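Session log. Operator J.P. requested a structure for one protein chain; no other inputs attached. Running the standard single-chain path with token output.
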Amino acid sequence: MADVNIEKGIVDDLLTNGYNVKWIPDLNCKMLDQELLELAKRENRILITNDKDFGELTFRQKRLSTGIILLRVKGQRTKDKVRLLRKLFLTHGGKLANHFTVVLRKKVRFIPMEDII
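Structure written below.
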């Protein structure tokens, strides 16, 4: 599931490559973060976002999810983010479920959801 702040080019690339992606602007641009997290969990989807507030919901409020990918690559063009996500899915696709994954320009951090409780 792609948050409202994920660029359309990223969503289009994921769809073109066969991923089953729902983009929040197609559903409800005014959806609250908590509602989005619940929807992703209910539909067993990993949430892709640029929004650090999901860290707050996950770590401080202990709201678990199916998985979150937080893109922390400010200033990069959409095509650079697409490249980073492709690499992430190719090299770590099996590790994304039940993890809070932070994608930085030069590294990726994985935090298991069970470590959050």
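Operator note: The two ends are 23 Å apart (CA to CA).
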